[in-house]
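Key result, reporting period 2: structure in, sequence out.
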């Protein structure tokens, strides 16, 4: 998805997907920060990153949620994702 201006963040999503059974966008955000990747200006744009990764067949959504534990998120529910089974 070269037209996605956040395609470089797929590296963080792939990292989480390969190393965990399931993860949320919070973990992908932490990995992106640790990798010093340029993050979206608006945190809500992370949903575009996750949808792009799903569209490319990198990850899939799971039917379970967890309360966010990041600061400034007010404990909003976060969906779990995992590496797409091939």
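The corresponding designed sequence is given below.
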């Amino acid at each position: 998805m070269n037209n996605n201006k956040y395609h470089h963040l797929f590296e963080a999503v792939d990292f989480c997907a390969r190393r965990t059974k399931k993860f949320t966008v919070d973990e992908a955000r932490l990995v992106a920060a640790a990798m010093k990747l340029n993050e979206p200006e608006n945190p809500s744009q992370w949903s575009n990153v996750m949808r792009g990764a799903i569209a490319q067949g990198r990850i899939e959504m799971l039917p379970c949620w967890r309360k966010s534990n990041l600061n400034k998120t007010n404990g909003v529910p976060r969906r779990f994702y995992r590496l797409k089974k091939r």
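The chain has a mean pLDDT of 90. The beta strands are 59-67, 77-83. This case is discussed further under Risks and Mitigation.
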